[in-house]
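Allow me, if you will, to draw on your knowledge of protein folds for a short while. I have a record of one protein: its chain in single-letter code and its fold written as discrete structure tokens. The full record is reproduced below for your convenience:
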Amino acid sequence: MRLPFLTPALLLLAACSIESEPNPPPSTRFVYPSGVAFWRPPAAGGPSASNGYLFVANANFDNCYDSGSVVALNLDALSTQADGQSVPVPRLGTAVAASPLLFESLSASADSLVQIRSFAGDMGMWVNPASGLPRLFVPSRAEGNNLFAVDVSLSADGAPVLNCVQGGVDCQTGALSLTDDIPASLQESGRPGLPRAPSPIGVTVDDANGTLYVTHSEAADSPANSSTNFENYLVTLKAENPTRDTLGFIPLSPEGYIYGGSDSTTVGTGYLFVSGRNFVAGDSGTVGANFVLRLVDKNVPTRILEPLLSLVYRIREARAIRVVPRPVTAAELAVRPHFVRERLYVLARGPDTLLTLDFEYDAPPGEQSTDPSFRVISAVPMPDGVSDMQIISRQGAPTSTDTNILAVTSTGDSAVSLYDEALGQVVVQVPLVNSQNQTSNPSQAFALTVDNPAGVNAARLFVTNFGDGQVAIVDIPDLTRPQDARLVARLGTQQQRDPNQGTSVCQENPS
């Protein structure tokens, strides 16, 4: 049969018709979930009375839809069918089903979703002390290199409502770019262009002062697109006013330091700790990481330190990092009144390792901190592709000061590993793999957040499985026995993939 001939005018008309057809992100399921955050209102009555709210960034990695999104879920509003009965998400600390429950229907209303650009990274959350309500921050590596800010409120019936800080539900309009329209006042002396942060990926909020820190995985050239004068910055903003008015750039590679990409930030007493990673540099392709860890003096941010960690333990790059205070005795404070002892946990790659480091220094209020000393306490092998890490605080026994539990995700084997600091080893790996072929459709456990309420001897993990489009719920029913952790539920419909091409199927999954 002979195919009908289309004139160029008709082809143009057909193309315009296709391009103009709106294809918004779905509210019924996750699409390459990346960043995640959890919140339970103080007035909710604790975990025995409320499951709280979950916020998830959808990266839209395959560009199946017009944009990415941020979705909010009231976990108490979800239900599924089990043995012919409607079953809700179990409360933390209560009995759970023998097999993991599947909550395919997300029950997200139109008010519970806002649009952002694709390729979302981490998610940060700041609770406004004036209103008691959260504000979410999500960076995007798509065109514009935006940082999105989303406000959360609750309707009369407790349903979450999301709105872009600049207004509306399409946060792409008027979003803050970290590479375009940078104020000229921020130009650095001696550099030909303006600072910029391409491929923003990590976001951290200092709750003590409301400062927001953003990392970017691709080094910035100057002028833009010149592949020269590379630098990496730690971007600063005020959580209460995340606009160009409060935008700042801290150069992480002063003279004598080699530039690189960065991944994560954690806030100590006197220093900000920033992890380094591989990056993409213009025409040069992926370049090996040139720093693993750098410290920024909080009171003198132009002062950058680089502990030569690679001389003590050789690793290729780093991902998530977390810092906690360590005990200081009264005798020590009598001699050094501003003495600080901190423990830093570093997720390293090449080889994949959980590093524990202790830092000691003096941090006089409002003044420059002293040069820290550090030592590596332990190096524990981890599964391939370590990605994110959260600290779980024990309640009560054991009584040793080294009692934290570290939850670590790994994209390589799609599992969450629990490291028990009291025992000095990984005590359990909870597999989160889906039922499909892991070669063509890997689950890729990516980011996680933790419900670790004070006074409760249990914790709950929420893990985004990037590849299969679901969020896994893992419970630790007894914090004295983290090895009893188990997968209790999955949220969302499993993402369908084309086994021949390994890409997602760009259509709604049947219910």
User: Anything to note?
Assistant: The chain has three helices and 34 strands. The chain has a mean pLDDT of 89.
